[in-house]
């Protein structure tokens, strides 16, 4: 269980610090590349506003705390089938 979280700060550290362009999109894409649902191993959708990672297959919302996605089923919130987070 110890390796269940991934630090986004480690990802950002690999980007040249001198670059003045916004890096958010880049970091998001990298995050989603390496993160998968721990339950079904499927892809996750990043919900920037709410800082959640959504697995539509399992209807789980994994929290992101202090830039660290918490990829634990126990910490995830189960979404109702009608939850707007499951759309789009
Ligand atoms: Zn899943």
What small-molecule ligands were found?
zinc ion
> What about the largest sheet?
5 strands, antiparallel
Q: How much β-strand is present in the residues? A: 15-25%
> DSSP helix count?
2
Distance between the termini: 31 Å
Q: Could you state the order of secondary-structure elements as H and E?
A: HHEEEEE
Unreliable spans: none
Q: What share of residues is helical?
A: 10-25%
Described by its quaternary structure, the protein is: single chain
Task: List the keywords.
88 residues, alpha+beta, 5-stranded antiparallel sheet, binds zinc ion
What does this protein look like?
With 88 residues, the chain is α+β, with helices and mostly antiparallel strands. The protein has 2 helices and 5 strands; from the N terminus they run H-H-E-E-E-E-E. Strands 1, 2, 3, 4 and 5 form a 5-stranded antiparallel β-sheet that branches. Strand 1 (45-47) and strand 2 form a beta hairpin. It is globular. The termini are far apart. Zinc ion binds at residues 37, 39-40, 42, 55, 57-58. Zinc ion is lined by residues 37, 39-40, 42, 55, 57-58.
């Amino acid at each position: 269980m110890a390796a269940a979280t991934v630090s986004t700060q480690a990802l950002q550290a690999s980007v040249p610090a001198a670059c003045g362009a916004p890096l958010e999109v880049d970091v998001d894409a990298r995050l989603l590349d390496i993160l998968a649902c721990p339950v079904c191993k499927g892809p996750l959708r990043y919900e920037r506003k709410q800082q959640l990672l959504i697995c539509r297959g399992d209807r789980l919302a994994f929290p992101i705390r202090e830039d660290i996605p918490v990829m634990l089923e126990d910490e995830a919130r189960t979404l109702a089938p009608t939850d707007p987070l499951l759309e789009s």
